[in-house]
Design a protein that fits this description.
By secondary structure, this protein is an alpha+beta fold. It is built from eleven helices and seven strands. Bound molecules: iron/sulfur cluster (SF4) and FE2/S2 (inorganic) cluster. Iron/sulfur cluster binds next to α6 and α8.
């Protein structure tokens, strides 16, 4: 971490604001002067401004620990989470903040996530099985090997913050493109050994606004705060679709119900789970 520079304890914060009901122009840039301290995050700075200087300032947040994905914005020109960005790492004498590009704005730094979540919904981001009865009323737990878990684990870390979408040059030119978050989630479920939804997701993923619109700029993976690597997920999806087209894709049946692996070892410090309250077997 950089040494704290006392001369930078007073900074200028420039915020791109938006209020559709404002007379004159709904967009304007506002400047504030703020005293900052070591350890202060961009989200802390926004709280301080709202509490002491401007109660009309709008931004979204919830967890303050890079888990909920609510505080995504453009910080000094780069998409990032406000709660996960130290001012001393980015600011210098001036900190510029703006809402995420590629999203409509509700107000100030608050993006409109309606389309984002519609696209997410369109890839059916949930486990599907051919056996509907088993899907509705699972008869037991579905165990996976470590290999099967590793196949999709990285992609399940997504917190739906939207930073990848805001950095994507393809989304910037086509509002129809499904985008890196939703496509990475399509792959997350396709790669899960318990899932059988490849065919039904294919209609969306392989459409004209699907994976083949991606030009592999890789910016989505650069800005992702959770290491999801959506660019990789999109390339893996492309591979699956090409193999499927060439009839070389091995049809994968959802893994059958089975007991835990025989030699499964428990970590010694993890306590035993409580007894089941309902036993369906
Ligand atoms: S893939 Fe990364 S950047 Fe994109 S929504 Fe998920 S966590 Fe955010
Ligand atoms: S407030 Fe939850 S990710 Fe920043």
């Amino acid at each position: 971490m950089r040494q704290w520079d006392r001369r930078l304890s007073e900074i200028t914060v420039c915020i791109d604001r938006y209020d559709r009901e404002r007379k004159g122009s709904p967009r304007w840039r506002q400047q504030y002067t703020l005293q900052v301290e070591p350890g202060m995050t961009v989200l802390d700075a926004l709280h301080a401004l709202k509490e002491t200087q401007d109660a009309t300032l709008c931004y979204r947040y919830s967890c303050r620990m890079a888990v909920c994905g609510s505080c995504a914005m453009l910080i000094k020109g780069r998409p990032a989470l406000a709660c996960n960005t130290q001012i001393q790492e980015v600011a210098g004498r001036t900190l510029t903040l703006a809402p995420m590009p590629n999203f409509d704005v509700v107000r100030d730094l608050v993006p409109d996530l309606t389309r984002f979540f519609e696209k997410h919904r369109s890839v059916q981001p949930y486990l599907q099985r051919e056996d509907q009865e088993e899907l509705e009323n699972p008869s037991g737990e579905y165990f996976q090997s470590l290999e099967q878990l590793v196949n999709y684990l990285q992609f399940s870390y997504c917190i739906r913050c939207g930073l990848c979408v805001s950095a994507c040059p393809t989304v910037a030119t086509s509002d129809q493109y499904i985008g890196p978050m939703a496509l990475a989630q399509a792959h997350r479920y396709n790669a899960d050994s318990r899932d059988g939804g490849f065919r039904s997701r294919k209609t969306v993923v392989d459409s004209s606004s699907g994976v083949f619109s991606c030009h592999y700029a890789g910016e989505c993976s650069n800005v992702c705060p959770k290491g999801v690597d959506p660019a990789r997920a999109i390339q893996l999806l492309k591979r699956e679709l090409v193999l499927d087209y060439l009839r070389l894709r091995r049809p994968r049946r959802p893994s059958p119900l089975c007991g835990p692996p025989e030699h499964a070892a428990r970590f010694p410090d993890i306590p035993e789970p409580p007894p089941r309250t309902v036993d369906r077997r």
